[in-house]
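Reply to dn_fold:

You asked what the input looked like. This is it:
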Amino acid sequence: MNAISAALIQAVRGPIMLITLGVLVALDHMDAYGLSFGRTWPLLIIVYGVLKLAERMVPRPAYVPPPPPAPPVAPGQWSGRAS
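and this is what came back:
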């Protein structure tokens, strides 16, 4: 897993939460399974926690400092450009 994986997890967190909410509400309205939203809403917290855990498990890339600026070129010296 890399930084792209972390960005992907962050990007899909919202849609996954909405899908989970939709499934719970649908189960509440179906009454076929005897599940009510009042009993199943903690699943939203569990899904959110699992997604945050997955996001934190992705190793972050090591910080690489930028190179130091190049010293200024004195007038008359070669600047690296063709004239």
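The CA atoms of residues 18 and 65 lie 39 Å apart.
Hope that clears it up.
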